């Protein structure tokens, strides 16, 4: 689920970590060998996986409407802290987006008639995120507050207003993995969420894993650069050819 090249994957990195973390917790019934294996796995998970996560992964998960409530994080205090950092990061990211890329929203928007019905898919694959996707938040949401116009309003206020409006968006009911495309979802709502949609489209195109591109990269190098007739090149030469050819 993190190696797909043709769908958005960055938002899945954080839920995958917490799913693995919760699933590998020590249990009283574990044997000594199983407990040792779990401890080693959790050590690697924290040192390598958690250490590679950035706020971009947190923001991407928040911008996926099926994950935005962070139900995969069981500690409410952690959730509150994450949401605070996400709001700050969204403000920073939105500030870096030019006005041309994110036009101001229309002044009159019909909130009730704008909801888009997601198609019902007949064939479904089991999703490992079923238990927390599209779930309601544990605490009541804040009162809805949408500004009348965005002209002259600071970016921070516009972002916060869009976040409040985003909290009331109906999450798509997708009970299977891979059937929901957050890029398409935000593309259909860019008029209502000009800043958030721009940030989402910038983040969602970042792959969560480089495995897919590395496979193609290696196949290209092995076939066209490093051959039986060219097996004595210096590493610097291979690197120069690789960069120039790609």
Produce a short descriptive summary:
This protein has 246 residues and is an all-alpha fold. The protein has 9 helices and no strands. It has helices spanning 13-23, 32-52, 55-62, 76-96, 155-166, 182-187, 194-204, 211-224, 235-245.
Key phrases:
246 residues, mainly alpha, 9 helices
Question: What this model shows, in words?
Answer:
The chain is mainly alpha-helical and 246 residues long. The protein folds into two domains: 10-116 and 124-204, no CATH class; 211-245, no CATH class. The protein is built from nine helices and no strands. The longest helix has 21 residues, at 32-52. The two termini are 26 Å apart.
The strand count comes to 0
SSE topology string = HHHHHHHHH
What's the structural domain tally? Answer: 2
Largest sheet descriptor: none
Fraction in helix: 40-55%
Distance between the termini: 26 Å
Q: From the helix content, strand content and strand pairing, which structural class follows?
A: mainly alpha
Rg, nearest Å: 22 Å
Poorly predicted sequence stretches spanning 5 or more consecutive residues: 106-126, 139-149
Number of helices: 9
The general outline is flat
Tell me the fraction of residues in β-strands, as a range.
Answer: under 5%
Roughly what is the average pLDDT, rounded to an integer? Answer: 76
What's the layout of helices and strands?
Elements: H1 13-23, H2 32-52, H3 55-62, H4 76-96, H5 155-166, H6 182-187, H7 194-204, H8 211-224, H9 235-245
